[in-house]
Queue: 4 jobs
Job 1
Amino acid sequence: MKAIAYTEFGGAEVLQLVDRPEPHIGPDSVLVKVVAAGLNPVDYKVREGYLEGLIDTHLPAVPGWDVAGVVVKPGLDTPELAEGDEVLAYARKDTVSDGTLAEYVAVPVRTAAKKPAGLSFEAAAALPLAGLTAQQTVRRAGVTAGQTVLVHAAAGGVGSIAVQLAVRAGATVVGTASPGNHDAIRALGATPIAYGDGLVAAARAEAPDGFDVILDYVGGQAIDTAPDLLAPGGTIVSITDARARTELGGHYVWVRPDPEGLAELAALAADGSLRVEIAGTYALADAAEAYRALETGHTRGKIVVTP
């Protein structure tokens, strides 16, 4: 099969289109023919060696954790899924080796959900990691109706979904984003404010008593300004900086596979209740170009590769 792989750590230039053996599946996995695979920033952080010691990488490695496709071979103990089922998955394994940027991938059933008929494969592939991250951070923070919530990086893949989930929960939401993304933030039901020197003043103007919840998907200034923006008794949740937990008494979240949560998100996306924005779609052979676009940090929505 064709796959994208790298034999050494480095930039997008180390990615190559190669021939690989079709993956073996264990008793609790299914073989999926990949229709679309979603890219995430963690992919290139692993590829550049930044997460060594946290995630083991076995070279040569195929990147990618997000996938949507069709089951072509079930394992010996996978009663949840059958041949021909359309699925989406946050197919993260214990090591990085055989990822989703390939024509076929072995998917543990503990990571997968059936794809609703009304959801495109591209949108399904864009949803797993970003959607589950947003869902799990919103739930960890305990967002409820009547609260005021600040979402950092609100136009990004995770932030845009978190905004929608917080709005669905009945919260008043403010989102940080560059000015070019402010209309998109408004369309999601939140009030946009800009990053930069005036962040604290702009945020306080929207929430004079502080925020009940801060959701951090970018780090840096988001953590530095949190003490000035949290309401008494407020909670901060971060996916980027452990200071949220160690210094601010909040939470640090490392997203986990969750088929039930993924199915819930997919259903919302299929019926139009949850918007999943696609920033661009690339062929498998153009995966390096796709990652270069992602690594600019200026894309709105998710980038998808279609083998």
Job 2
Amino acid sequence: MRVPVLFDGEGSGSGPLSWGQLENWSAIVKQGTWLPLGGVKPLPAGTTIEEITGELRYLMSRYQPMRTKLSFEPDGTPRQQVYREGETFLDVVDAGDEDPEKVAESVCDRWRDEELDFAAEWPVRMAVVRKDGTLTHMAVLVSHFVTDAAGALTMMAEVASRVTAPVAGLQPLAQAEWQRSPAGQRHNAAAQRYWEGILRSVEPRRFPAPASVVTPRYWHGEFTSPSLARTVPDLAAASGLDSSTVLLALYAGSLTRVTGVDPVVIRPMVSNRFRPGLAGVVCTLAQAGLLSIDAAGADLDELLDRMRRVTMSAYKYAYFHHADMAALVDRVASERGEPVELGCYFNDRRGPVRDVPCPPGESTFRWVGSQEAPSFEPLFVHVDNVPGTLQLTVYLDAAHLSPSDGEAVLRGMEALATG
């Protein structure tokens, strides 16, 4: 059964994508997925369909990215259309004799596998599962195109308390308008000059040639480190840096020790929410910046000091027009005769509370899985808080870095931190 849900919100119009949206759209196209976020949650006893449709109506009405569809120029360039009002649907699924939680999970699994038509569909799918006439679980997936992690935290807090104050900050259409202004174009040009300086100064090959062919090619692992959870806050306090920058310095130091490649070139994910009017906006703003750091032979204090000096520019210029920057990268590759490998990423996904108390414990590493497809970047490390520890998640392409070296990079970060 499908329950229609009408919505009506503030703001509408059409225009080009914002820089954050363009970055996210490029990932959607490259990975061949609508990047669904979300999953299953149990519902309190007595929850009604009217309560859930009310939540869906609130989401669609309050957040412009929820009521955005795309159109495409003949060359494939996307444009956004924000609708003031419209209709969506809540699916109601009867579990029958099956476990309702598993039914909800199967709904999410099916939706993840299905394509989403961004020109015809809203970028959110929601369902409730009913068992013997009682609602038991909700299944909800929202495209990453709608929001990044920081925006999602704002959205969840506002949904929980049903905030009615006007939405604050620049919405994507307004962001795109500033980005096309003379001030926005000057910033974009400055970001390109900064990037070009790095692209022309480093050796193109950023990873050592693999010693052998590894199959499957793409690997996903997890390293949990209570030692890092306890040590990084102390290093941050002593150095005056935030813990994310400390971890980035440890990452750089470990990379050069494992790979022998220096300087180290990293693309840190930057929230961009320190910019005026963007702190609490529910949208996608995060972009992958670029930094280069001389890390070979540096001790920990030197690494922290060098990272302090390079991150300011890296964060400042992690705000740019994705297609313009891609064209610059291609032009420099053509002029140099080969591309500069830029597939080394770092993403601190921890929320506002980043440094939490952690008891002593053993560090552990495990490979979660390996596959031939879909592909991963050469090296991508994520940071997450999990109960009682700090977790580093690694995704790698064994054609660039072996699984054993990928594990060594994470363990090397802990070794550097603990001396």
Job 3
Amino acid sequence: MAGVDESRLRTWLAKYHNPEAALRDITTVVNHYQGLVPTQEPYIFNDGTMMDLVNLSGTIPVTYKGNTYNIPICIWLIDTHPKNAPICYVKPTSDMSIKASIFVDQNGKIYLPYLHDWAPGSSELLGLIQVMIVTFGDQPPVFARPKEADIPYPSNSFMPQPGGNYMAPYPPTSYPQSSGYGGYPSYPPTSNMPYPSYTPYPTPYPPYSESLC
């Protein structure tokens, strides 16, 4: 299994309900998208329950207006995988900010019909990633934060400096969320670290165009 320590992965999946199916799903993804790497980390559910889960973390190639961008994501596999849909996030780097939409909330959590309609036997990780690539190629989920030197400021020093959130959250309205273990968890432990705040003078990532508004 190129790029994957199968022995370690089997150890991580030992407590999963269907470890062989999860192993096959992960292997297929890693063979197609080498920018994603499997690892095991603790995940905290809404009810405070913590569980060690396997995730695929890294980047996927997304083509936007003829250019290919590496979009950082993290896919968490529930221990019932593939019976239940994974939990997915966009994970912006320090020089990116999240562009909230009906597909991605302000915390980076991803909402897609493919996830909402997840069906054991017909839904799998490779198909999910392909849907992400198409969706994000139409609506990029992140934009680049400008360097401080590139941010224009008013010439009058007594004028208030721009600040605050650039975008208001745009929570999904068509995909229900459940709480607690057995449904969709809230955030991984690292979510307590704040994402970069929005700037009133954003330079999108990919490059800005009216279609991103």
Job 4
Amino acid sequence: MIVLGLTGSIGMGKSTTAAMFEAEGVPVYSADAAVHRLYAGRAAPLVEAAFPGTVRSGVVDREALARAVLADPEARRRLEAIVHPMVREEEEAFLAAAREAGHPLAVLDIPLLFETGGEARCDAVVVVTAPSEVQRARVLARPGMTPERFDAILAAQMPDADKRARASVVIDTGGGLDPAREAVRAVVARYRDGDPPAQAADRKRG
């Protein structure tokens, strides 16, 4: 089974692109969705112990947690030490199930793939990108988002240009849904439907 990493900075259209892979019949693991489940379950008491006041009714309050860690690199590292091992366990279970089901291709949708060294677990990496002005407009349109928070999030992520330079494939979502969908179909055709030389080259490059 080919394992394809999917990543991109905030506001680049990664979640929409992940849904396009699912529409093509490719199983997709979402690290963000895993975190949501964990924050409502076994991670909640550990997060509350590390960051008192960030859990409400047994569920992590993501806004409160963001205020506690976003501008504090040491706090982010403590949070990652709690959450990342659990997310990795869920990822491994997803991959095992996909292999058992006989899927030839699976996608790992991980926002901080390069930042956490996750590309080492992938055969190839798709980076989703868009022009910076499109990215900024998308993110600032989100409820509760401020320019200051957006800048802090960007500062914690690898620059888009660096991600694109390390990608096996780049999908630009700035041109709308239809071109992005065609790009996803091309990736699926390449990796699921068998382009062994390209796959081997991507493994060597990684």
